[in-house]
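dumping the sequnces here before i forget
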Amino acid sequence: MNHKWLLLFLIMTSTVFISGCWSQKELNELAIISAMAIDKNEEGKYVKTIQLVNPGNVAGGLQGGGNGQSPAVTVYTAMGDSVLEAHFHATSKVSRRLYHGHANLIVISEELAREEGITDILDAFERDPEIRMTSRVVIAHHTKAGDLLKSLTAIDKIPAEKVNGTIQTTERARGESMEVTLQDVITTLTSAGKETVISGFSLIGDIQQGKKMENVQQSELDTTLESDGLAIFKEGKLVDWYQGEMSRGVVWILDKIQQTDVILDWKGQENTLTYNVVRQKTKVSADTTNDLPVITVNVRAEGDIREVRSQIDLTDPYEILDIEKEFEKEIKKQLENTVTRTQQNKSDIFGFGEVIHRSDPEKWKKMKSDWNDTYFPNLKVNVKVEAFIRRSGNRTNSYISDMKQ
Amino acid sequence: MFSFLKRKNPTNDRKIQEINNQNQSHNRPPNLIESSLSKNLEVIKQKTGNSSDIVIRQLKIGHNSKLKIAILYVKGMVDNQSVNDSVIDSIMNNQNLSEKLIPQDVLEILTEDVVTLGGIKIVSDWEKLFTALLSGETITLIDGITKGVCASTQGGQRRSVQESTTEVSIRGSKEAFNESIETNTAMVRRIINNKDLWVESINIGKMTKTEVSIMYINGIAKNEIIEEVRKRLKGINIDGILESGYIEQLIEDQTNTTFPTIYHTERPDTVAGNLLEGKIAIFVNGTPFVLLVPALFIDFFQSAEDYYERFDIATAIRFLRTVIFFISLVGPAIYIAATTFHQEMIPTKLTIIIAAQRESVPFPAFIEALIMEITFEILREAGIRMPKAMGSTISIVGALVIGQAAIQAGIVSPAMVIVVSLTAIASFATPSYAVAISARLVRFIFMVSAATFGFYGIILVFILLTVHLCSLRSFGVPYMSPLAPFIREEAGDSIFRRPIWAYKKRPRLISGQNRVSQGEDQKPQPPRKRIMKNTTNMEKGERNES
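..and the predicted 3d for all of it:
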């Protein structure tokens, strides 16, 4: 009996030692990848750029001896016939094990997205157990994807963080870009009723300048990264870029606006009133009674007047109602512009197809196959906007009203 | 198996003979006290090796001082004043004694009239006489009588009742037990003033004959458990009992565990509270630590003060203790697992900070943790055993070694220092030292498994630990109750501490028949408004209404 227990004990303890720290990886033996970029070169090979964090140069304090002297990130590029091959070629350049667990950003070049499409390259990312499905995907606008990772940034020392942070802030404050994760991209790629939209990012200035430490050692950076519109995809290929109000329209219809501002002309004066939307809800519904479905976009926005540049009597409730009407018209106009342009692009990025699928699955089955090319461009889209002015900031009437009296 | 060896070894046979002889001497009927005083004194001197601390005072009393008596006691163990006043003085100045001559009468007068002490008993055999003498009683032997009179004059210097040093509380009684068993039992009696508080005493230890008392409340404590305690205590056959830890180790249910299955405390209020729940206290002479059985796992996370604070605060503190226990158990293990296996689980910025710190550290995280843990254990052990005057030296050197030099030298990372220090503090914040020490041992197992399998290993050990804890029993009561088996009405006093007015019943598994601990409607309520205004009117009004 005793021997049995002893044997069992020995077998159990031996598993601890035989397994030998299975898949153990020390933190200081890892090359933490913060971002990856995919380009395609002239020979038709994939160029993978990886941005590695230099922990010592990011975390200040005790041991960061080289803090401020050397860059927070190091960038390596490698080529290959497939994405994964490029990745393996990169390992021959790095002394440590490449670790994707904290890679938060995947940059895809505009060229690649436009010519070849993103369909073929994402499988390698999705398949890898280390890469997060919540990594953000960004399209490099007017620049190579790799260059976006090479430029050094201020404040957020890691460029990947800067890119992610900027997109997030722009989405929250203006609604002109959108956080799109790898998961989202793959979901929209496979969905018949919704097309892909990805935020764009561009490099302003000279890349050679941006690589140097001097770039971040000045108050105004020569080379900097900027959030730049939305890339509209059709069946995995980039077809159009939306900027400003146009891209906000997309975000708005997708009900992702958290805060934004709308400017209005008032009684002949240009850009007189600025309306700050602080709360909105957008509902898309479909009416499928007729052969061609009708889509209704219901927007209900609440917000404040944040800037007044003329004598408007904001204490007058009727005046407020008039202003609300005008804002409704303005928002409606903007959204309709977006819808029209998108219908011209023949790419249902709003997910109207999914709405129809939900409301009338039978009808959807018939439309599904040529939805983007036949049905979507001819769709009748009604935009209904309700806007409410809740407050007017710290003042009611502007001091301008007092001055001229 | 090795019987041929035995035969070759003659000393073994001799030993067996010796043991037999000893047993025979035990089995012989006890020597009775003889009638001749001088012979008796001779026997005493011979048996005690003429020990210098045994005082033999010979007196002559009676008519013409013809009757010889002797008073014996042990120096230091008796209360000198009561020996002088109540025994020697009384005997010498008593009128009756100076007249009578017959020894038999003297014995009677002595016990009934002369000795002005409460505890008087008459012994007739040596065994009992020696036990009495050596426990501090004063013996009076009379020439011509085969009996001795024992007067309870126990006294001498003992540590006074002081504040508890190991279980400090802010609110509540400051008294702690001391080394004297009489004082200790009396302290509990003062709290529970009830005839049902029963005390049974036995002497344990062949050499030390230590007095051990079990105390319980008759009618609340379960008879089976009392019987079990009695049986286990009687089964102890050992040279000496120096501390209640001896008893604890000899009567616990399961020895193959690091977790304590017997609770010990030095607070009378804790003992009283547990007695009221139906537990049994074991007092051991010579130690301030009283054992309480049966002990449950959750008992070790509760302090007497929990019941003195209001329930919301006490519950919050108990939650905190649960967290503390988990930290002290798996703190370093989680750090090891997260930094060597599951880096993706740490927030990106934190990963980079830890990675930066670990950049120059030459060891794997596990070795690093082990170095720090062992350094800390060394410091802790040294801190306890050091003379108090050297304590500050230790803390300075320790702080320098752990806090500063190790980091600056790049041997350990600051994050690891934080983890280890937090764990160390957590292990001291557990109310019971006994369970904190167990957690400290188990922590190393967690660390090894975390270094081998990551979180999977931690979960694995955690499952094993839970299974082990659930397999334990304390005097037949499941160790993890009321959590496993889950007893709904008692779970209110486990991790939670329900309001005092909601304690309707005593624990089912511990207390026996009589389980109702308080009346109905104990919840305090504000007075109704009408009562506040005018009592007499209200009474009238109420009657009218009804």
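Chain B has three domains: 37-151, 181-295, 311-478.
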